[in-house]
Amino acid sequence: MPLFIFVALSIWACLNGYVFWRLGGLPVVAGLVPKWAIGVLAVICVLSLPASRWLPKVGLQGLGSFVEMAGMTWVGFVFLFFVCFLVIDCFTLGGFLFSGRVLQLRTGGAVVALVLSVIALFQGTRAPVVNEQVVTLPGLPRERDGLRLVFISDLHLGSQIGQAWLQALTARVSALKPDLIAIGGDLIDHDAERVRPMIPELRELHAPLGVWAVLGNHDSFGGVAESSRIMREAGFRVLHDESDLAVPGLRIAGVDDLGLLGRASPIDPSIRKALQLVRSGTEACVFLSHTPVGAKVASEAGAGLMLSGHTHGGQIWPFSYLVQLRYPELVGRHNVVAMTQIISRGAGTWGPRMRLWRRGEILLITLKSP
């Protein structure tokens, strides 16, 4: 972990250095802001992220929250500025080509980056849309035909997202009148204690066939035991590499985050353990996995529908292309042998409250009997 933090902060410092270097070279900026002030601002921006973690530890929670919000927002801005400046530098070979126009091109790139950042902020703070899907689920009893399942993932509560947003989300979910609710991980961003006061709002998520949940990687950052305890106190059935019957003929299975597990050990045994009680052909199975990996194994083990999140659909274009290198099935609906896989963009956001281009989503899935 210390090595990861060092590498991440080094990359962060390099991105800021490049962006401020290019911004400082623009005539409109150089004419208004002294070079020393640009340097100081660059240092402040680099230090904002580590400071947002350090300030709460010394009792400055309010200041820490403000610095975290500002720093995370700048993450989105600096990424888009970096991309726009990099495209122009590649096109001009760092200013070797079109030398007489390069400052104008860079100024135009800065304007484009600023406009995209504002659009991303607007999209990121809008309420998630409801994405309706119809899935024919093998083994689903005829009497359960038309069952309404709501799937929400990646709320990332406790950092940029708080009680007011959660209240609005629970009201929208309740209005959909679900028979069953599934939560696909990353309910908690990184600090479980910030989410504990939100348990009353989380209890508003309820359905006749229960609320089922699995842990994501960010839930584990908040502590597996504490995150699980908060979910159970909210009335959720938390699945740790296991399954249970929601009703006769419909089994819900789930695994702890396979992304973290997959870095240290094979993921297949965890999936097969979660699905070991599935009676293929005589009951239907919905499989919850925060990270969208191991779909073929899940299909072979008897899952008829796999629901995941984690990718956020890339959240901020064109970062989505980088995410897709790790997760080729980035978002949306896919067929994996006889199983349907749906990967949600998530209801919330991680880091900056920004999305480009698509808003967060709530999945409303109508299950059909074959």
Task: Give a concise summary.
The protein is of the alpha/beta class and 370 residues long. The protein has helices spanning 2-24, 27-30, 35-57, 61-92, 102-125, 163-175, 192-195, 199-202, 217-221, 224-233, 258-262, 268-274, 295-300, 319-326, and strands at 129-136, 147-152, 180-183, 211-213, 237-238, 242-247, 250-255, 284-289, 305-308, 332-336, 339-343, 361-368. Helix 6 (163-175) links the parallel strand 2 (147-152) and strand 3.
Structure description:
With 370 residues, this protein is an alpha/beta fold. It folds into 2 domains: 2-125, no CATH class; 129-368, 4-Layer Sandwich (Purple Acid Phosphatase, chain A, domain 2), CATH 3.60.21.10. Helix content is 45%, strand content 17%. It has 14 helices and 12 strands. It has a 6-stranded mixed beta sheet, covered by helices on one side. It has a 6-stranded mixed beta sheet with strand order 6-7-8-9-11-10. It is elongated, with a radius of gyration of 23 Å.
